[in-house]
Amino acid sequence: MCILLKIRRETLKNIKPKIISWSALHRRHHELSDKHGDPHSPNLHGGNWRDRIRGLIHSHLTWMYKHEYPSVVHYVPDLIKNKNIVRVDRYYYLWASLGFVLPTLLGGLYHWSLAGALAGFIWGGVFRIIWGGHTIWSINSFLHCFGMSRFETEEHSHNFGPIALLTFGESWHNNHHAFPGSASFGLEWYRLARISHKEKKKRGQKLRK
Questions:
Q1: 124 to each of 68, 77, 146, 148, 191, how far by Cα in Å?
Q2: What is the span of the domain harbouring residue 101?
Q3: In terms of domains, do 168 and 196 share one?
């Protein structure tokens, strides 16, 4: 059990930041994308191949271990005034912990064994976080270096269709930077993309990002 708790604690470190702080980071990224001050750009470490690899590693993973936290008052004043978002944000680690507890309980009850509980913990908890994390982090890293740019933007964002299914459409990253107020990154009906917040009050409407 101590080993499971340690694995859970280490895995929780790799979960995305809390809602409000993540939103501030994301808006900072859009404001200074691939410029000095961007928290996770792969393109600010030099031009030779070693620097490019170092930039990819930084933007994919290591930036999370040490970075500046943008002011939430400056970047997300709308979110800190939203009582529902503040409430969810306050209990963030509870929700994250339930992502381990529930699969463990379900696995144990379904198989009625400790082995079933362990399988639920590993596959429904640890593996889910690791898989989902690397999938999303690849957008910060690889999609600011590789792929196709459909729109001319001020940074180095790219689209990459082969992983659209894995990312629920978030790999249409150049589209996202071109139209940051749209919740549907695919733009066309046949391009898989996640839509939320009532299509963010209809796709294309300018919402602050």
A1: 32, 35, 31, 34, 28
A2: 68-128
A3: yes
